[in-house]
């Protein structure tokens, strides 16, 4: 480095390198300028100056200088290495690898370049190259422990565990008998545990167990030692020894569910699906009774039997389990027991038990089997549990009466208000749910969880504001954002939510903006989540050298496996699906037509309000950015500016101006197809995107995947009928490629069982015959009936409306229906209004659903907060009486209300 310079300048060059390593960038620049003053074309100095400028956020100058340095000295490994470092800082890893390889052609034994190359190969999962590079490093420096370990890990990642074991054993052969010293005992123990896990993974179980016993004195982590031992013993079939070790582990941690699961396996009493024979249940019951006598303080040993016990034994065990929790007042009791609702008959037993306890406490203030009195709070927690129980069962009236009684009993318990908010959300009253969530938040302003719950409810409530109060939905989002930033740092509050990777908020607000039709803001939120996942992927880079140095090898390999499946996470799936839907909507209704549609659907006063609101939002964003820039414009001692880049597109307007929305959608669709191939939604989106792109074979591939995953799903049926209907309406193929596509489709059609020897209409009727008791299946058939023949619109509408006669109330509870769900009924209303375009049928459906869902704000049910406020608010009554804004409502409105004819009044307001 700098060898071609005179001694004085060579020393200055070394100073540049040292200044870069110690982050004294100004000092390094000064030394570089001194050299360039005498040797303006010195390539290595130009490159190092560029690298220094890059660290000071002067990227344009940095790239110019580094490229000039490479041009002036193309045979210098330093210039190529610096060029690679520059690309690496910008996450251009493939380009950086090319630069490193060019550097190695010039200096093939440079350890620094080889180490940097190996890190990039691990990051990019170039595992073959990673093995070669780590092998070269080991040959160059065999006395360095990290090179041995890195070579072993490289072979492990490359699916060669046996070779990795050989390398680790060869490394151990180089060590002395008294190794390790005290300061390296933990790291050496971790390496030994890693080697034993490799032996287990490779199938050498006996050898792994022998090695474990042999190296026990050198393994510091005794808990992991025991877990590794019992894992090997169980796999070897030595179940009695394994059971003894699991009991020892339970003595250390009697609430670890994995230990109980392992103990059951040792006794041959474990089932993946949770189903057991009567004999197995008796044996399990006896096992847990003996364990409960040994671990009396463990809650897990009492909770686990509830999953397999039945009948009277279940009743008795549950009775004994829940009593202490109700006495102590544990709010999470219902969450703990909620999995039992998936077991046939257990929900009814739970209900009978809690109702019996409620009756006993009300009558005697005691439990049925006790003589001492319970504290008054016991009744409160019984009511709390019952409210959640009836909410789960869909009996919202009873749930609300229980939670209201609990609030009257003790109005200062915050959990009561959050549960009431949840019940109202499930019942469909999103406005009231947001109100009670905010009331709970105000009772404890220091609780972040309750604050987050309140924000969620506010964002969900926009659905009501979108459908009823169209000028105002964005105000609700602004209020939610204002509430969310209460727990961020002062100053850069909105960006702080992004920096904190607060994905649940970005997803919720993105969905809210999407419902409102603000595609720019929605896309901005969804793509922000996608960026978080890109950042998480990049964050693994620092661990490639750290984990090898600290010997956290098992955790490192697990982290890499996690990173490989990172994009299959639910949050990424939601964000990618949301972005695809935005781009589909943008393709179907381009920006200009969206603006025209928005303008024609609003009155002049509404347009004025929206314009004013958007202007205020833009001004606020600009003011925030200016404040951030002024408050963070300082320069550190190293010369690096701490300026946060201003958001060039605060409202997402540039995102809407993309020329090819389907190309953007395809980018995220490919990620979903790769990482979530078993999700129905993935292939539904694939069908929609590829049909619009006229990619017939890809669309058909999506149809086949839908049939594979769930052929009886209503959406799968829709896609199947739509595809072949579209195919039938296309012109005859002309080119050789088109003829080839048609021949493939003709050959594949007989393989679809639903269409064998049937027309599309016949297949639609057969599908209806299979699913006559399901609302959404009936609706799918009706929609396809209209799609196949527009003349059968009335028949399709009648098919949907006739499904009302098949709905059966359960337990006499209004709103507790056999087959209807609120979200499904909302989807049906949208279908009648927007697809079938029958406003009268949509109105009839809305009135009908208001009876079944009386708390729904969407359907304006009689018990929803919207209607109640209208009836109770004096200002609203005055407006109705005056009739200045809506004379068609004021006419006869008083008589409707006074005579109790609420449905007629609702019909009148809906038609408005």
UniProtKB/TrEMBL annotation:
<dbReference type="InterPro" id="IPR021183">
    <property type="entry name" value="NatA_aux_su"/>
</dbReference>
<protein>
    <submittedName>
        <fullName>N-terminal acetyltransferase A complex auxiliary subunit NAA15-like isoform X1</fullName>
    </submittedName>
</protein>
<dbReference type="GO" id="GO:0005737">
    <property type="term" value="C:cytoplasm"/>
</dbReference>
<dbReference type="InterPro" id="IPR011990">
    <property type="entry name" value="TPR-like_helical_dom_sf"/>
</dbReference>
<dbReference type="Pfam" id="PF13414">
    <property type="entry name" value="TPR_11"/>
</dbReference>
<feature type="compositionally biased region" description="Basic residues">
    <location>
        <begin position="605"/>
        <end position="618"/>
    </location>
</feature>
<feature type="region of interest" description="Disordered">
    <location>
        <begin position="595"/>
        <end position="655"/>
    </location>
</feature>
<keyword id="KW-0802">TPR repeat</keyword>
<keyword id="KW-0677">Repeat</keyword>
<dbReference type="InterPro" id="IPR019734">
    <property type="entry name" value="TPR_rpt"/>
</dbReference>
<feature type="compositionally biased region" description="Basic and acidic residues">
    <location>
        <begin position="644"/>
        <end position="655"/>
    </location>
</feature>
<feature type="repeat" description="TPR">
    <location>
        <begin position="77"/>
        <end position="110"/>
    </location>
</feature>
<dbReference type="Pfam" id="PF12569">
    <property type="entry name" value="NatA_aux_su"/>
</dbReference>
């Amino acid at each position: 480095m700098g060898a071609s310079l005179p001694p004085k300048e060579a020393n200055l060059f070394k100073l540049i390198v040292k200044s870069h390593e110690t982050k004294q960038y100004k000092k390094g620049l000064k030394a570089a300028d001194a050299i360039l003053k005498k040797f303006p074309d010195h390539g290595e100095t130009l490159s190092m100056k560029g690298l220094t400028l890059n660290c000071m956020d002067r990227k344009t100058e940095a790239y110019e200088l580094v490229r000039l340095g490479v041009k002036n000295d193309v045979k210098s490994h330093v210039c190529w290495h610096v060029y690679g470092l520059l690309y690496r800082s910008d996450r251009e890893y493939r380009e950086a690898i090319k630069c490193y390889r060019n550097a190695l052609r010039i200096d093939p034994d440079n350890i620094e370049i080889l180490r940097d190359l190996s890190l990039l190969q691990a990051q990019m999962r170039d595992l073959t190259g990673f093995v070669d590079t780590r092998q070269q490093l080991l040959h160059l420096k065999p006395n360095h422990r990290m090179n041995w370990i890195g070579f072993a890990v490289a072979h492990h990642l490359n699916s060669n565990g046996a070779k990795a074991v050989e390398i680790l054993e060869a490394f151990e052969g180089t060590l002395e008998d008294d190794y390790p010293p005290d300061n390296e005992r933990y790291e050496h123990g971790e390496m030994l545990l890693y080697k034993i896990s490799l032996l287990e993974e490779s199938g050498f179980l006996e050898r792994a167990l022998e090695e474990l016993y042999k190296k026990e004195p050198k393994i510091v982590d005794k808990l992991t030692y025991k877990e590794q031992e019992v894992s090997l013993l169980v796999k070897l079939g030595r179940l009695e020894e394994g059971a003894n070790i699991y009991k020892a582990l339970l003595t250390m941690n009697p609430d670890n569910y994995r230990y109980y699961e392992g103990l059951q396996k040792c006794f041959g009493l474990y089932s993946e699906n949770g189903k057991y024979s009567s004999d197995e249940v008796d044996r399990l019951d006896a096992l847990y009774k003996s364990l409960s006598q040994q671990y009396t303080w463990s809650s897990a040993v009492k909770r686990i039997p509830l999953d397999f016990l039945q009948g009277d034994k279940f009743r008795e065990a549950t009775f004994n389990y829940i009593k202490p929790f109700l006495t102590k007042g544990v709010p999470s009791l219902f969450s703990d027991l909620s999995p039992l609702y998936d077991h046939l008959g257990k929900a009814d037993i739970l209900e009978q038990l809690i109702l019996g306890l409620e009756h006993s406490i009300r009558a005697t203030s005691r439990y049925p089997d006790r003589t001492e009195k319970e504290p008054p709070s016991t009744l409160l927690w019984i009511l709390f549990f019952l409210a959640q129980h009836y909410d789960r069962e869909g009996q919202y009236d009873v749930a609300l009466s229980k939670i209201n009684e609990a609030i009257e009993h003790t109005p200062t318990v915050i959990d009561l208000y959050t549960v009431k908010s949840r019940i109202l959300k499930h019942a469909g009253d999103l406005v009231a749910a947001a109100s009670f969530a905010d009331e709970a938040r105000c009772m404890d302003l220091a609780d972040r969880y309750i604050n987050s719950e309140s924000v969620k409810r506010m964002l969900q409530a926009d659905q009501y504001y979108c459908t009823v109060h169209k000028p105002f939905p964005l105000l609700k989002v602004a209020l939610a954002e204002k509430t969310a930033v209460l727990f961020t740092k002062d100053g850069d509050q909105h960006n702080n939510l992004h920096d904190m990777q607060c994905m649940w908020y970005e997803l919720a607000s993105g969905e809210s903006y999407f419902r409102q039709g603000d595609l720019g803001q929605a896309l901005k939120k969804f793509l922000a989540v996608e960026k978080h996942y890109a950042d998480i992927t990049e964050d693994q880079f620092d661990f490639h050298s750290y984990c090898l140095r600290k010997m956290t090898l098992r955790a490192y390999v697990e982290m890499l496996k996690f990173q490989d499946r990172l994009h299959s996470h639910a949050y990424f799936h939601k964000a990618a699906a949301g972005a695809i839907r935005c781009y589909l909507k943008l393709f179907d209704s381009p920006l200009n037509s969206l603006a025209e549609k928005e303008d024609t659907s609003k009155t002049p006063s509404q347009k004025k309000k929206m314009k004013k609101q958007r202007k205020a939002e833009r001004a606020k964003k600009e003011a925030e950015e200016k404040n951030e820039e002024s408050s963070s414009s300082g320069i550190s001692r190293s010369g690096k500016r701490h300026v946060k880049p201003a958001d060039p597109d605060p409202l997402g307007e540039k995102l809407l101006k993309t020329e090819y929305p389907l190309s953007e959608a395809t980018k995220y669709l490919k990620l979903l197809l790769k990482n979530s191939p078993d999700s129905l939604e993935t292939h539904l989106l694939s069908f929609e995107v590829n049909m619009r792109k006229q990619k017939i074979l890809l669309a058909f591939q999506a149809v086949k995947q839908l049939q594979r995953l769930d052929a009886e799903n209503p959406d799968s049926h829709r896609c199947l009928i739509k595809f072949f209907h579209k195919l039938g309406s296309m012109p005859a193929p002309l080119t050789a490629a088109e003829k080839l596509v048609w021949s493939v489709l003709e050959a594949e059609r007989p393989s679809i069982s639903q269409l064998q020897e049937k027309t599309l209409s016949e297949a639609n009727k057969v599908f209806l015959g299979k699913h006559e008791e399901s609302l959404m299946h009936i609706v799918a058939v009706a929609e396809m009936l209209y799609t196949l023949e527009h003349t059968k619109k009335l028949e399709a509408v009648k098919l949907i409306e006739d499904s009302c006669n098949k709905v059966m109330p359960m337990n006499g509870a209004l709103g507790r229906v056999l087959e209807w769900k609120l979200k499904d009924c909302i989807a049906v209303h949208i279908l009648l209004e927007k697809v079938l375009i029958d406003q009268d049928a949509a109105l009839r459906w809305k009135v009908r659903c208001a009876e079944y869902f009386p708390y729904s704000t969407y359907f304006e049910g009689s018990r929803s907060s919207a209607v109640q406020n209208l009836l109770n608010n004096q200002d609203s009554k005055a407006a109705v009486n005056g009739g200045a804004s809506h004379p068609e409502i004021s006419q006869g409105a008083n008589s409707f209300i006074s005579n109790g004819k609420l449905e007629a009044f609702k019909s009148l307001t809906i038609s408005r």
